[in-house]
Design a protein that fits this description.
alpha/beta; 2 domains; seven-stranded parallel β-sheet; 11 strands
Length: 447
């Protein structure tokens, strides 16, 4: 690729055990963990996982080199994953998986013993950030700084007990109330001062991010919380040479938007409005029933279309569309979320058309392979000494974290190209531009 030096990055091999530390032992976490145990036993397939089932084209098309990603990129083996978690409830992973109702009895029982061994550590929790939940399994300390030190000790004890060589923390807990960054988030000095003085602006997810990085562990934010996308945590990640990634797993309705919106834009079809509503009945739905928590999710969901459609460049097509998002808590639906979309578009001469989508998805089933891929890719980045924001993993997030001054790329297909080209670059292969002119150039010049 013109302007990009072909270079193989020095990547440490994935030797030893990889710890996977999860704040939030709920439906997503237990679906992910149980799935790994089932796959290890040959009782399930990692469908939806790019690291396990995805291929990558290397070189020219006529060379026909399409290996599995895991065969050419040094990723951790699934047999080397060791799990730990924090939660405000005391239930072990087996009990949580049963209550969550995502997986069937036939899938949970074969891995009952393994799941029962995963018991949550006491969590850092602040009711003012998640008003709809509370539980007994919480840490108590005088300051948030002391809570952070407790988490650091948890991580160190986990690594020692399980003899892991390295670890990754991935947030799978609830959506916190919406907050804007303040002075306490502006640098690590102010942040640590805020921890020691119990700043109300420091959320639990930010304490987990801080503690993980201080313990030498990368942090991934799977929620719309403002966790690692603050200057203080970005600064700390760079200083400690650790990866961070976020935010908000891209699963159901937003996944559909990042597939469809690029198609509308590619064909220059206009948009008058996009109305989205969801019903779900799991713990996530209960939390989002609180307006302050829903605000965090709403901001994450609404950011997608503007970035993809670029109304400033196409004002006649996308300069004045209406975008609304609704989420309704409906307990009978459980984890089986249903999303409706009404899309009002217009085409040639301005004639109106409509697209209707009814997506009956399983939220945790879609999230589990995302958790796996992010854990393995962030561990890869850690071994490649890729510090700070990992924008190449935008493929997995609703609100991809990017360097200040850049806009996030939301187009799923551009995100996929970015991800695969990053992998090619890491292993010293040519980047793929999809130009294809070299296949025809000689024939053209001969004529």
């Amino acid at each position: 690729m013109e302007g990009v030096e072909k270079k193989k990055i020095n990547i440490e091999m994935p030797e030893g055990k990889l710890g996977v530390l999860i704040p939030g032992l709920g439906a997503v976490a237990t679906t992910f963990i149980a799935g790994i145990f089932l796959i290890r036993k040959g009782l399930g397939k990692p469908i939806g996982s790019l690291t396990q089932m995805g291929t990558i084209r290397l070189g020219r098309r006529d060379q026909k080199r399409f290996p599995l990603i895991k065969d050419v990129v040094p990723l951790a083996d699934l047999n080397d994953l060791v799990f730990g978690a924090w939660d405000i409830f005391e239930d072990n992973a087996y009990e949580v998986a049963k209550k969550a109702g995502v997986l069937s009895y036939q899938d949970i029982e074969p891995v009952k013993k393994e799941l029962e061994e995963i018991k949550p550590m006491k969590a850092v929790f602040d009711r003012s950030y998640v008003k709809k939940l509370d539980g007994p399994n919480k840490k108590v300390a005088k300051t948030k700084y002391e809570l952070a030190q407790m988490l650091i000790k948890d991580i160190e004890d986990f690594k020692k007990k399980n003899k892991v060589s390295r670890a990754v923390t991935i947030w799978c807990a609830s959506t916190e109330a919406y907050r804007k960054p303040t002075k306490v988030h502006s640098n690590i000095k102010n942040f640590e001062y805020g921890l020691k003085n119990n700043s109300k602006d420091i959320a639990p997810s930010q304490i987990y991010a801080y503690a993980s990085l201080m313990a030498g562990v990368p942090f991934i934010n799977g929620s719309p919380n403002m966790a690692c996308d603050i200057k203080a945590i970005e600064e700390l990640a760079t200083e400690r040479h650790l990866p961070i990634a976020g935010k908000d797993f891209k699963t159901g309705q937003t996944l559909m938007k990042t597939i469809l919106a690029p198609g509308l834009k590619a064909r220059l079809l206009g948009l008058d409005g996009w109305f989205s509503t969801n019903i779900l009945g799991n713990r996530d739905g209960e939390v989002l029933d609180d307006p302050s928590s829903f605000k965090s999710k709403e901001v994450s969901k609404l950011s997608v279309l503007n970035t993809i459609l670029q109304p400033d460049l196409y004002p006649e097509l996308y300069g004045d569309f209406t975008h609304k998002v609704r989420i309704e808590y409906y307990p009978p639906r459980g984890d089986n979320k249903e999303g409706w979309d009404n899309i009002d578009i217009f085409g040639w001469l301005g004639y109106p058309m409509q697209i209707k989508i009814n997506f009956l998805c399983r939220d945790s089933i879609l999230a589990a392979p995302i958790v796996l891929d992010l854990v393995l890719f962030v561990d890869l980045a850690q071994r490649a000494r890729m510090a700070g924001i990992q924008e190449w993993l935008s493929f997995y997030f609703k609100s991809p974290q990017v360097k200040k001054g850049l806009y996030p790329e939301h187009d799923l297909f551009i995100q996929q190209m970015k991800l695969k080209n990053t992998l090619r670059y890491m292993i010293g292969e040519d980047l793929i531009t999809h130009l294809g002119w070299d296949y025809y150039k000689a024939e053209y010049e001969r004529d």
